[in-house]
Amino acid sequence: AQSVTQLGSHVSVSEGALVLLRCNYSSSVPPYLFWYVQYPNQGLQLLLKYTSAATLVKGINGFEAEFKKSETSFHLTKPSAHMSDAAEYFCAVSARSGSARQLTFGSGTQLTVLP
Amino acid sequence: EAGVAQSPRYKIIEKRQSVAFWCNPISGHATLYWYQQILGQGPKLLIQFQNNGVVDDSQLPKDRFSAERLKGVDSTLKIQPAKLEDSAVYLCASSVTGEGQPQHFGDGTRLSIL
User: Fold this and answer.
1) Among A104, A14, A36, which Cα is nearest to B35's?
2) Contacts with B35 (C-beta within 8 Å, 6 or more apart), sequence order
3) Taking CB atoms and an 8 Å limit, are A43 and B40 in contact across chains?
4) Å between B15 CA and nearest CA of chain A
5) Do B104 and A46 form a contact (C-beta atoms < 8 A)?
6) A42, B110: Cβ pair inside 8 Å?
7) Which of A21, A81, A98, B17 has a 20 to 30 A CA-CA distance from B63?
8) pLDDT in tens, A57-108
């Protein structure tokens, strides 16, 4: 069974500072990994995905994530935070469970951007 | 491309009443998912459809929850009777079939049980 751990339920950064949101996964087989963002009263929007091609994945809005198999990590980064980045971020792992491929989400990290 | 459509956006009912949610996936997406998202948590899969067949409903509380996708397009999720702990956002998502395909989410239905 797969699982996802997001370290830090709340992260605060100043505008212009580096954003680092941590995600570690557990999967018995090579996984597909995703980061989603959720703004208040909205659904989840895909930021980026890792599907066993390049280990450094670039996504929308200047975000990127690096897949590190040895550390079972898929941390999300952005060089310079913007006020509009304030939202909740979810890491998710997709792995096969029986006949279905299931998406398992972490508990989320709420990002606050301070002026 | 139109996104995943869900209705209603908000619903308030009393416990023991019934409620239904509707989802229309992105055109051409064969796989449809219903998730429950409790405040402060990540989404939890309730049921997954491939066309009009159920692929996985292992986490669906079948004594009170039911879902259908009769024509392989839109879907309804029903709760009867509702309990206080069912207060959550119910998200619908869809994807094309295939390894590593991302899921696309609707804006969800926020359900409050009084």
Assistant:
1) A104
2) B43, B44, B45, B46, B90, B91, B92, B93
3) no
4) 23
5) yes
6) no
7) A98
8) 999 999 999 999 889 999 999 999 999 999 999 999 987 766 677 889 999 9
